Amino acid sequence: MDSVSTVPTAVLILGLFWLWGRMERALDKLNLARYQPVPIPSKCIYTPDQVSVIVCTVDTLLARCLRSWLANHPLELLIVTIPEHEDHILSVVANASLSAADFAKVKVLTSTTKGKRVQLAVGIRHTKGTIIASTDDHISWGPDFLKGMLPCFEDETVGAVGPTMTAAIRNDRQSSDIITPWEVAATRTAWNRNFQLKASYAAARWCWVLSGGMGVFRAFILKDPMFTLSYTNDAWLGKKMEAGEDTFVSRWLQSHDWTIAIQALPETEVRRTVKASPDFLKQMFRWERSTIRTHIRTVLDVPQIYKSFFVARKTFGRLLRPVLTTCHLLAWVFTFLSAGRTCVFALLLVAWYILESYPSYRTFFAEYPYMRRYWWAAAGQDFFYVIQDYVCWMTLNDIRWEGRKVSAEEQHRRD
């Protein structure tokens, strides 16, 4: 393509992307406005004492999270670890300052094999409740979490319910002098995802991935022997999968015509710890590889996506994002390298995008004022996909799963 035709084409591409962005933004606002959580009734068919809570851990169970789960008065709490860490987990439970009634609800199980999938399967096999709540060992709930989630199951088409999540920043870290850019980026990630969950559910009663960190399910779905067999033997290009357990569960629900509901109420928002080091990048790459793989498999294995134009469009759009990003970047390069009015047009477009995004950052930093020092980390997180997509597509066969490490002091914190 010669230089005469390149610049007008680049400008046209930028204009089309701008128009596309405006349409997507308008639709997102419309869908967010349409989102309605299920209200909490005075009396519900399902009650917390019907819920079995499963927590899969190795040696990083947080006592304060343990107390938050039991404060919801579930039927039982099953903690699944591996034999070499059983004594340590029992010690965390024993030192968690539990009442006798709560202590009696806790049962520590062991799996001969380490891994989220096999450990969860052990927990599922031992549950007694009609509802199963699966949570990561570092996620804490509010005291009315289960009361807020359970009303969703009065809709017989709902097979699982997911909450919104926020970052759990310890009180002693809520300072601009202590907080790290990685925590800011992680908090921004969770903040953005909450809006996306509500918008997609309002648009099509759809959730692509119910976070593996926290989900509430009808027990008979997870107790289905076919589910367990498929879940524990899932493979990608011949390699047995350990990472991406949440994406498998989501696809299973969707392909069996179950709705994954999103319940966004103050009572149902959960708090999860976030990484304060560059390890957050590894986590982001792992999450994105898992997301790409599940979108590929959703196209192949979940025909239900074609029932909704919104879901089909978003699914294929996610897979094509690296191609679209490349076109967009090249259009910016050619436009900025030109002289005169086209370069001015590009500068005005940049100014527009900055002004358009400002309200989002203003709202975010109003909620987390101590993070303002690292505003660039929040902005960088919003555009990290530009790098993330290319790296993850090139390393798509990396199915490794990384565990967490926390200190003994952190496991017994009371805040």
From TrEMBL:
<dbReference type="InterPro" id="IPR052427">
    <property type="entry name" value="Glycosyltrans_GT2/GT47"/>
</dbReference>
<keyword id="KW-0472">Membrane</keyword>
<feature type="transmembrane region" description="Helical">
    <location>
        <begin position="329"/>
        <end position="354"/>
    </location>
</feature>
<dbReference type="GO" id="GO:0016757">
    <property type="term" value="F:glycosyltransferase activity"/>
</dbReference>
<keyword id="KW-1133">Transmembrane helix</keyword>
<feature type="transmembrane region" description="Helical">
    <location>
        <begin position="6"/>
        <end position="21"/>
    </location>
</feature>
<keyword id="KW-0325">Glycoprotein</keyword>
<keyword id="KW-0808">Transferase</keyword>
<keyword id="KW-0328">Glycosyltransferase</keyword>
<protein>
    <submittedName>
        <fullName>Glycosyltransferase family 2 protein</fullName>
    </submittedName>
</protein>
<dbReference type="InterPro" id="IPR029044">
    <property type="entry name" value="Nucleotide-diphossugar_trans"/>
</dbReference>
<dbReference type="Pfam" id="PF13641">
    <property type="entry name" value="Glyco_tranf_2_3"/>
</dbReference>
<keyword id="KW-0812">Transmembrane</keyword>
<dbReference type="GO" id="GO:0016020">
    <property type="term" value="C:membrane"/>
</dbReference>
